[in-house]
C-alpha cells in the first residue's frame, strides 16, 4: 500500500499548501502578537474546524472532488463525529455539548457549494458555514491572479444556501487583506459586508472569515466593532480566540489516515481558546441540535 506524505502545515498566517492556486495570495506579514489577558484561562482543546474552498472535479487537484468530500464526511460519521456550522459548534461547546462536533467551513462561496457540497452534507446529516462576499456575488475569484476562474454564488444562490439550513458568514466585501487595509476599507469589508448580508438573507451573520487568513489586532477590533460574534482565521498564533479561530485546511489528498493524523495533531499545533463564550447577537442555530 502506498503511503502519501503528510504535509506539515506551516505556522504562518497563510498556511495554504504551495500550488493551491485557488487559494488566495502569497503569505502576508506576520501579525503583531497581542498579549493574552491574564484573566483569560485556557480551557480545553481548540475546536476542530475544517477549511474547504471549492468542491468540484478538478484535474489540477486544487479543489476537493465531490467523491473525496463524500469519503471525508463518511470518515467523520464513522467515528461518531458530525460536521456542523461554526456557530452551532461554538454554541454547543458553550453549553457543554460540543463533544463529537467538528466545524465545517467553505471559504469564498463558490457556486459549486450548492450543486456539489450541499447534497453530500445532507447525505451525512451535516451542516456547514459558507463564507461569502456580498460584493462579488455572481462574480468569480478575480482576486486570485493565478488560479482558474471559478464562479461564485449569486445572491439567489446565497439565499438558497441559507434556506437549506447552512450558516452564511462574511468573507469581507471584496476579499481584501485586512492587515493592509485603510480605515475606510476595514469598515467596508467588515461592517458593510455584514449589513449587506443581513439585507440579503434576513439574518445578521454571526461569523466573519479573514481573507487570506491574514489577521492582526486592528482587524480583530474591526470585526468586533462590526458586531460579529466569532471570526475564523487559519493559524492566528497569539491572537487565537473567538475572533481568531484556528482552522485546518483539508485538501484533495486528505485520505482517512491523513485526517486521522490531522485530528490527532490539531491540539498540539493550535493553541486552546483563551476563554469559552457564546456568540452574542443571533438566536441559536437549529443545526446545533442533535449533537452526538
Ligand atoms: Zn478566501
TrEMBL record:
Pfam families: Polysacc_deac_1. Residues 270-292 are annotated as: Disordered. It is found in: Secreted. PROSITE patterns: NODB. InterPro entries: Glyco_hydro/deAcase_b/a-brl, NODB_dom, Polysacch_Deacetylase. Keywords: Signal. Its main location: secreted. Residues 100-292 form the NodB homology domain. Residues 277-292 have a biased composition (Low complexity). This is Polysaccharide deacetylase family protein. It comes from Streptomyces halobius.
Amino acid at each position: 500500500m502506498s503511503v502519501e506524505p503528510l504535509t506539515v502545515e506551516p505556522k504562518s498566517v497563510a498556511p495554504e499548501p504551495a500550488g493551491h492556486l485557488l487559494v488566495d495570495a502569497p503569505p502576508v506579514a506576520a501579525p503583531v502578537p497581542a498579549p493574552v489577558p491574564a484573566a483569560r484561562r485556557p480551557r480545553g482543546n481548540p475546536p476542530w474546524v475544517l477549511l474547504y474552498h471549492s468542491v468540484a472535479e478538478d484535474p489540477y487537484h486544487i479543489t476537493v472532488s465531490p467523491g473525496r468530500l463524500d469519503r471525508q464526511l463518511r470518515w467523520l460519521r464513522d467515528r461518531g463525529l458530525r460536521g456542523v456550522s461554526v456557530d452551532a459548534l461554538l454554541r454547543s461547546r458553550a453549553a457543554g455539548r460540543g463533544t463529537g462536533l467538528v466545524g465545517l467551513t467553505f471559504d469564498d462561496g463558490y457556486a459549486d457549494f450548492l450543486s456539489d457540497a450541499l447534497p453530500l452534507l445532507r447525505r451525512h446529516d451535516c451542516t456547514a458555514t459558507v463564507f461569502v462576499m456580498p460584493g462579488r456575488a455572481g462574480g468569480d475569484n478575480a482576486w486570485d491572479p493565478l488560479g482558474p476562474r471559478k464562479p461564485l454564488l449569486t445572491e439567489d444562490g446565497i439565499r438558497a444556501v441559507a434556506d437549506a439550513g447552512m450558516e452564511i458568514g462574511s468573507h469581507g466585501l471584496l476579499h481584501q487583506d485586512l492587515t493592509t487595509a485603510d480605515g475606510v476599507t476595514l469598515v467596508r469589508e467588515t461592517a458593510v459586508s455584514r449589513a449587506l448580508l443581513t439585507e440579503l438573507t434576513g439574518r445578521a451573520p454571526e461569523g466573519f472569515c479573514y481573507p487570506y487568513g491574514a489577521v492582526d489586532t486592528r482587524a480583530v477590533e474591526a470585526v468586533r466593532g462590526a458586531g460579529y460574534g466569532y471570526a475564523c482565521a487559519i493559524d492566528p498564533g497569539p491572537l487565537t480566540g473567538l475572533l481568531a479561530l484556528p482552522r485546518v485546511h483539508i485538501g484533495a489528498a486528505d485520505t482517512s489516515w491523513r485526517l486521522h493524523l490531522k485530528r490527532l495533531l490539531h491540539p498540539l499545533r493550535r493553541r486552546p481558546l483563551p476563554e469559552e463564550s457564546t456568540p452574542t447577537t443571533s438566536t441559536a442555530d437549529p443545526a446545533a441540535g442533535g449533537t452526538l
